[in-house]
Design a protein that fits this description.
The protein is mainly alpha-helical. It has helices at 12-37, 75-82, 99-113, and strands at 86-89, 94-96. The radius of gyration is 29 Å and the shape is elongated.
């Protein structure tokens, strides 16, 4: 019985060219990602529009955690406030809720406002 080696079908020039092409494409991809993801100076300064959320923000959610002039002096006080119910402005009827509950409410509302697919004809509910 004679054992022979199968001839290799790889050409070193093609392997080197493939590696070079892959390296160039990687560098271009990284450059494009860097350009797209790096914010331009002053893009989000006061007065410029905020980027829109993918499903829209409900109008009734208070976007600031603390009223002007009520900013706590320590991170501990801020963490305590994030876990409690309380008044932000009693006269206006604005309250704050624990952050976990606020996230649940936000996600529930986003899920409720998401478009639903139409049922297929002849399908029973």
């Amino acid at each position: 019985m004679r054992v022979t080696q199968e001839p290799e079908g790889l050409h070193p020039q093609r392997v080197a060219l493939g590696g070079l092409v892959l390296g160039v494409l990687s560098a271009v991809s990284i450059g494009v990602a860097w350009f797209v993801l790096t914010p331009t100076p002053g893009a989000l300064e006061r007065g410029s529009p905020r980027p829109a959320a993918t499903f829209g923000e409900p109008a009734h959610i208070e976007t600031s955690l603390f009223s002007p002039g009520t900013m706590p002096s320590s991170q501990t006080a801020a963490r305590v406030r994030l876990g409690q119910y309380g008044w932000v402005n009693r006269a206006a009827g604005v309250v704050h809720v624990p952050i976990e509950r606020a996230m649940e409410l936000y996600l529930h509302q986003a899920d409720a406002s998401a478009p639903r697919a139409a049922p297929e004809p002849g399908a029973t509910p």
